[in-house]
Design a protein that fits this description.
The complex is a heterodimer of chains A (416) and B (499). Chain A is an alpha/beta fold and 416 residues long. Helices cover 51% and strands 7% of the residues of chain A. In chain A, a hairpin with a 2-residue loop joins strand 4 and strand 5. In chain A, helix 2 packs parallel to helix 5 and helix 5 packs parallel to helix 10. The longest helix of chain A has 26 residues. Chain A is globular. The longest helix of chain B has 33 residues. In chain B, strand 2, helix 18 and strand 3 form a beta-alpha-beta unit. In chain B, helix 3 packs across helix 4, helix 10 crosses helix 11 and helix 11 crosses helix 19. Chain B has 499 residues and is mostly helical. In chain B, the strands form two sheets. A two-stranded parallel sheet of chain B has the order 1-4. Chain B starts with a helix and ends in a 12-residue tail after the last helix. Classes of the chains: A alpha/beta (416), B mainly alpha (499).
Amino acid sequence: MQYRSYFIAVLFALAVLVAGVVLTNWLVDPLDIYRVVRKDHVNRVKSAYIPYARLAKPSQIERGHYQRLAIGSSRMLMGIPVANAAWAAAGGEPGFNASIQGADLRQIRDLFEHAVVTGNVKSVLIDVDLFMFNAWVPSGEYPYPVATFSETEQERFVRERDTALSLLFSPGITLASIQTLRRQDEKYDKVMIDGTTNPEHEMQHVLEDGYEVRFRQFEDRMVRTGWSPCSDNRYVFIKGNVDKMQVFRDILQIAKQHNVDVKFFISPVHVRLLEMIHAADLWDDYELMKRKLVAEIAGVYGADTQGVELWDFSGYHHYAQEAVPQQPNVAMQWYLDSSHFSQALGHKMLERMFAAPDAELSFGVQLRPDNIDAVLQMEREQQVEWQAGNAELSRDLHKRTAAILKDKKINGTVCK
Amino acid sequence: MLGYWLIHRWRGLETAMVWLTLCSLFYYGWWNPIYLILICSLMLVNYGAGLLIYQRRFAPKLLMIAGVTFNLSVLGYFKYMDFFIATTNDVAGTHFNLMHIVLPLGISFFTFQKIAFLVDSYHRKIEHYSFVHYCLFVTFFPQLIAGPIVHYRELMPEFLRIRQNGLTARHLAVGLSIFAIGLFKKSVIADNVSAPVGPVFNAMAQGVHISFFEAWGGLLAYTAQLYFDFSGYSDMAIGLAMLFGVRLPLNFFSPYKSRNILDFWQRWHITLSRFLREYLYFALGGNRKGQFARYRNLFLTMLIGGLWHGAAWNFVFWGGLHGAFLVVCHGWTALVGGYKNCPRFGQFMKPVAYAITFFCIAVSMTFFRADSMPSAMLMIKGLCGLHGVYIFDGENTFHHWLTLLGLPVEFSPYAIRYVDKDVLNNLIMVYIIIWFMPNNAQIFAAEHPAISQGELLRANPARRIKWQANWRWAVCIALMLLVSLLNLNNVSEFLYFRF
């Protein structure tokens, strides 16, 4: 072959390959963005979606023009069903679950801003947790381009260009397309079209492992790194120029300025996890977090809190005290592990927050400056009562926490 | 490139060279237009000085020394000022503020090129002077940012040969192919193997105790990353230059296949070794004044070579370490020189020599990557197992074998914070490529794409994989380009850009 022919052959082959990759990614649509083709046994099951959820969510929000959004961490992703009648009636249609696993507050804020800039969202649910407010837990901007209020036309063009490149011509998405084509079994159907994880799929995994195993794995991880990565288990709200409450304040200000109805909630974690928070000497920080959230809302909204609510579903209530089966293949009703609640409990939370007629009024309380002291006092009393009635379990949890903290002291990250 | 080819066809080589110079300056100025003033001023000053030195108009030796000092001062200001201030503060207890000077791109490389030009002018190694040619020599974009360190007397004849031989399709075919393989090495292999490097070394910098397998996993990943990053960039530079009808000197030749540290420095950053040898080691006296002076000069040369890589004491230590390795190597050669006649001993020592050489190179990379001496020492402790030898829960067979070897192994969830099975699999694959695959110079040997590769190729000829202009290679190169372009969507940086 002559050199000239070789050179032309290389360029031609490259052009064909590039066009092929772009077309494949667009049609297979592994992240459910374009929705050009959605065929059973071809690409309906988005088996490669979850690892790329962070890449997908902004584009899905932008293209979906959703009225209702759930934005938060894995608790929201797994536990809050978007297709809830009470929420739909209050917030309008369509709705979408824009939550991502391990989301920190900064990323939630960025997604929220993106949703307000690009769409017409009216009702937003945001979950807040202890790990989100520790200034020692690293957080950063949303890892993919998102819209901001201050973006110029050029910045918007660059953002849309970079997003399109990532979605149509990147190694990860190309592999995701191949995986999507190869894995069309129902067992890979992990995500529903409204963004929530498939509860049947989650339940199947949990049953296989067994709840006790799942509970322990999660509890160990939370004590080890979840609330504080520091070897001395340090927890602070402000460190240097990192102020996690400032991020919360930003969310409030965006919601207020753009008339978006926002409901925050503190998740109904299982008593075992509450007990480990207590054993890790973080209970005071947990209470302080709630006080600070109430104060921040009052600071931004003042006396007129129309459009913002903070709900506390945590505590030693009967749901959180559900017994954990010791053998595999025995189901729980309200929990998947110590922290992640089931969609059945998620429905109850939504009915309570959106004042459904059959809502359980004793489950969850809206926190305000005039009731925060009483609520925290009541939770402490419930804790003491539970510890008295479950002394052995409480001792076991304290002992496990101490062992993990000891290991962490030797091997954990030194926070300077 | 299109402009260069068209202008060369219609207006001739000189005009095409002007075009190339302007494009190269545009490319350099794209990063920061202010530093165009710097590079242009330095070109004017150095060219003028070189011409005056060659013409012997004023005291040529004094002028050469002044020119070299001037260039080193500029480099010292931009690159080493904060290092000097920080060291003064540490030693003398002062509190001078750092100046946070932005390092101009490629300054370490083009400073050395200018120094070589002045010294070559003094020794009358340059025959023809032209300001346009000199500007092109300094700014030629394939080698401007990260080398190779080219001499004026070797680059210009390459351009002038185009007058005789013209620009042909062979330049395009071979240049594109070499470039594609280089890009693949950089954007696919180097960037993917580097996954654990940042987490391991950052954790170390924060004082986390890195366990044995984490330390070795992180270090081997960095050693591989640097290899593919640098060799990939060198290939890209050679391929790009070839697209313009020009050959650059070979800069990289499978350095991890070295049988001793001397061999390593003849394969790793070849043009830097050459510069240090010709312009520093010989200037210090070389080996002309006895063994002690030889070893001293070698050690000093490597110390300065280390400092050139970065303004920090860990780089100086790395250079000193390699200086010590070279001294030991020379000493060992002198000691066992008599055993060369014993082939069995030689055969026995060969694999041992390769293993020891690679081990020394890899361990020295700790100091190259660490951000300070304390974190480098933490890494060394991790490599020695002083922070524990942990494996993940459930790896019972592995635990059993390691215990048989006498290692104090424990199960811990901290075992795979940064290095897991995927990382280990990647490492195995890349080291198979490093140790058993031919390099680009061998694959393209028949096309002679680089200057000064003859000796190395004669000693290490290509065996199986040889490039040819056929459909198979065309599809292979196109696939490599596709995968590389896909991976370019992942953000990465060339490591040697820091210099």
